[in-house]
């Protein structure tokens, strides 16, 4: 008789997305250097989410067979970061600037590399046609090699303890390394590129659901990368497989200003069978 299989999917649990307490210091590297972390894009409530998730992992340690972590992984030069764009005066856009297809047509914002003009025209036209997230310039975040790219300590510590108990390692899925497309969801980029298979659909998370009896989901942010990942997964799952998904709703929060987007996601997913529970109820 096969034993039930349970996995935990943690989406982008990285310092740049967590509202780290102001006076919190962390020891990094072999030199034991203590530093204070200033997250680039802190999600309100995320630090509390991290501690609740860490407690959940510790409590359910023996019941979790597999842990998968997606990592938002960018370069300074990225289509959703300011250096990629400029106006007629050569100025880069401020964080949270929306760039529409028409803005590019009108020359309000243009790529700093003029050879990419056709690409960004096609890119923004595709986003708008398919009703995906509008192109938004985010604060430069989750740069590969930076502290902001690292998994937050409470979750990292809990995963490490789980690995020691389970005698296995967690699985990492990196996303967002191609600077010419956004990559909110863990399955594929917003605009898959023909010359980069890492931006195209990756069936790994869908297969995870098919091979498990229960998949718990957490991470940041509920309004963006969590929502996008789950939406990409359910497109490839049957109605029965969708019922295997359980979002730990008290361990994930929306980006400030996108609370309604998160509520719409919850309502949409609840209507097709995705479960939403608090860790205290498990």
What does this protein look like?
- Keywords: Hydrolase.
- This is Nicotinamidase.
- Belongs to the isochorismatase family.
- There is one protein chain.
- With 282 residues, the protein is of the alpha/beta class.
- It has 2 domains: 6-77 and 141-281, 3-Layer(aba) Sandwich (Rossmann fold); 82-129, no CATH class.
- It has 8 helices and 10 strands.
- The strands form 3 sheets. Strands 7-4-1-8-9-10 form a 6-stranded parallel β-sheet, with helices on both faces. Strands 2-3 form a two-stranded antiparallel ribbon. It has a two-stranded antiparallel ribbon with strand order 5-6.
- α6 runs parallel beside α8.
- It is globular and about 65 Å long.
- The protein starts with 5 loop residues before the first strand and ends in a 5-residue tail after the last strand.
- The model has no long low-confidence stretch (mean pLDDT 95).
Task: Write the topology of this structure.
Elements lengths: L5 E6 L13 E4 L4 E4 L9 H14 L6 E7 L12 E2 L14 H5 L4 E2 L5 H13 L23 H14 L4 E5 L28 H8 L2 E6 L2 H13 L4 H4 L2 E4 L10 H14 L2 E3 L5
Parallel strand pairs: 1-4, 1-8, 4-7, 8-9, 9-10
Antiparallel strand pairs: 2-3, 5-6
Helix pairs in contact: 1-4, 6-8
Organism: Photobacterium angustum
Protein name: Nicotinamidase
Keywords: Hydrolase
